[in-house]
């Protein structure tokens, strides 16, 4: 039984010419030739750049709050970083400084080269990336185009029609993002587009015949029915941050990529507060060895589309849209007219592999990690700790009718107090059973046997 996890994202930046002509523009400044990755890709360098990408992603996530129209957020910090880094190749003076500042790259040596090598390294895994530099016919950007191609694999192409752009995006995302753009902005001369596609298989697979309808608690009073995937005695690495009131679990994929799930306890804050405190590197340090647990993970398919202009402006990049210095791309005034981001994410089981198990029994003798409340996720490269994708899920089934439910906070708070809890040897202790607190909340209502 293969559980396939898809992330599809497209990031598009449009450069809009205000006045002046574009012509061939050569630079005798820094030579961005092809990179020897053996010289720059140490583990320390990987994690430094991975940490920078994570900081950018978390800062962006803070600006993009879930709402009634889009209750779930899916972004690719790597995609945004690649696009801004490519734009920085064409920037000068304050514009370049601001871009590197937002990229958290000002203190990182060989940032462009390391990010380029990480991009190349990830494509050897289950991550597929494509980048394209669209230019209107008759215009040339030889130096910038060469640097973008050498460092970030941005293939040059003529910008002939919106249909051609949408066709390339659709092909690059295996048909999961269609009609990405409805029209071309007036006077556009250059478009930077990159796509990231991920399709992975869990190291420990879920069995589709144990997927059942279950409750997902949107908030204290509202719930929705979702298809909940079940894993009996699932090998899971997780920890509880008592200070921040969160549970954190790691679901590894084959190929050294992991899904991290962070679930705040209702009485201890919300998703935004939890996101502000996230540190992916620290999470990896706190993960313990895997142990058998009952796992409940919602099955869903979500879409997200957003213009990032407002979010990037609030992060300090407003000058991109008003009067940037992009003179390494071409002489004359240029400005970015829009930053479009679209993502699609799917969790589902596929396949028909025989299994010896005939039932799943949820009992309290084995700890349970039940993802049945709003959560934060990050799809992370295990080597560099770089988040490929990041998001918040407040409703995995936004098209379904919501229901009124009991307030889970009361039960959560009761679990946080000392109680008699069975240890592995069958004895009892008086300490809070933190690893099992959310399973106790919901198993008290939803104990069941699937056969």
What is the strand and helix layout of this fold?
Elements: E1 2-17, H1 37-40, H2 43-63, E2 72-75, H3 77-89, H4 93-102, H5 111-122, E3 127-135, H6 142-152, E4 154-158, H7 162-172, E5 188-201, E6 212-217, E7 222-241, E8 246-253, E9 257-264, H8 271-276, H9 280-286, E10 291-307, H10 309-317, E11 334-350, E12 360-361, E13 368-370, E14 375-381, E15 387-393, E16 403-404, H11 408-415, E17 421-422, E18 428-429, H12 437-446, E19 449-450
Parallel strand pairs: 3-4, 10-13
Antiparallel strand pairs: 1-5, 1-11, 2-15, 3-5, 6-7, 7-8, 7-10, 7-16, 8-9, 9-14, 10-11, 12-19, 14-15, 17-18
Family: Belongs to the serpin family.
Biased composition (Polar residues): 411-430
Signal peptide: 1-20
Task: Give structural notes.
- The relative contact order is 0.21.
- The strands form 3 sheets. The protein has a 15-stranded mixed beta sheet that branches.
- It has helices spanning 37-40, 43-63, 77-89, 93-102, 111-122, 142-152, 162-172, 271-276, 280-286, 309-317, 408-415, 437-446; strands spanning 2-17, 72-75, 127-135, 154-158, 188-201, 212-217, 222-241, 246-253, 257-264, 291-307, 334-350, 360-361, 368-370, 375-381, 387-393, 403-404, 421-422, 428-429, 449-450.
- The chain has 451 residues and is of the alpha+beta class.
- The protein is globular, with a radius of gyration of 24 Å.
- It has 2 domains: 2-200 and 302-346, 2-Layer Sandwich (Antithrombin, Chain I, domain 2), CATH 3.30.497; 205-299 and 356-450, Alpha-1-antitrypsin, domain 1 (Roll).
- The protein is built from 12 helices and 19 strands.
- Mean pLDDT is 76; it is low at 1-32, 350-364 and 409-451.
- One of its GO terms (molecular function) is serine-type endopeptidase inhibitor activity.
- Belongs to the serpin family.
- Residues 58-396 form the Serpin domain.
């Amino acid at each position: 039984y293969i559980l396939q996890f898809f992330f599809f994202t497209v990031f598009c930046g449009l450069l809009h010419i205000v006045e002046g002509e574009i012509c061939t523009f050569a630079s005798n400044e820094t030579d961005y030739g092809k990179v020897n990755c053996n010289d720059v890709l140490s583990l320390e360098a990987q994690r430094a750049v991975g940490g920078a990408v994570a900081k950018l992603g978390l800062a962006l996530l803070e600006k993009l709050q879930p709402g009634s129209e889009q209750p779930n957020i899916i972004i690719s910090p790597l995609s945004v970083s690649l696009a801004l880094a490519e734009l920085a190749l064409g920037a000068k003076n304050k514009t370049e400084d601001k871009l590197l500042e937002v990229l958290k790259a000002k203190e990182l040596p060989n940032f462009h080269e390391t990010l380029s090598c990480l991009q190349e390294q990830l494509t050897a895994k289950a991550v597929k990336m494509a980048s394209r530099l669209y230019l209107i016919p008759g215009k040339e950007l030889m130096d910038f185009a060469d640097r973008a191609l050498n460092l970030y694999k941005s293939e040059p192409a003529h910008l002939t029609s919106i249909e051609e752009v949408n066709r390339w995006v659709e092909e690059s995302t295996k048909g999961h993002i269609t009609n990405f753009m409805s029209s071309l902005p007036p006077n556009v001369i250059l478009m930077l587009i990159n796509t990231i596609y991920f399709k992975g298989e869990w190291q420990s697979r879920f069995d589709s015949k144990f997927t059942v309808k279950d409750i997902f608690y949107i908030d204290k009073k509202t719930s929705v029915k979702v298809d909940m995937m079940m894993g009996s005695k699932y090998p899971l690495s997780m920890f509880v941050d008592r200070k921040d009131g969160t549970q954190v679990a790691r679901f590894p994929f084959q190929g050294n990529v992991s899904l991290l799930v962070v679930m705040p306890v209702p009485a201890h804050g919300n998703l935004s507060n939890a996101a502000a405190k996230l540190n992916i590197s620290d999470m990896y340090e706190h993960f313990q060895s895997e142990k058998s647990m009952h796992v409940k993970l919602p099955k869903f398919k979500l879409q997200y589309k957003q213009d990032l202009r407002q979010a990037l402006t609030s992060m300090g990049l407003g000058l991109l849209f008003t009067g940037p210095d992009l003179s390494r791309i071409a002489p004359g005034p240029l400005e970015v007219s829009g930053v479009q981001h679209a993502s699609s994410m799917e969790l589902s089981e596929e396949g028909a592999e025989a299994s010896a198990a005939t039932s799943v029994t949820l009992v309290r003798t084995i700890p349970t990690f039940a993802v049945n409340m709003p959560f934060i996720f990050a799809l992370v490269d295990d080597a560099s700790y770089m988040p490929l994708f990041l998001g918040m899920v407040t409703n995995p089934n936004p098209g379904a009718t919501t229901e009124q439910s009991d307030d889970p906070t009361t039960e959560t708070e009761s679990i946080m107090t000392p109680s008699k809890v069975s240890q592995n040897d069958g004895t009892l202790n008086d300490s809070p059973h933190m690893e099992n607190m959310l399973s106790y909340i919901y198993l008290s209502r939803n104990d069941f046997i699937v056969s």
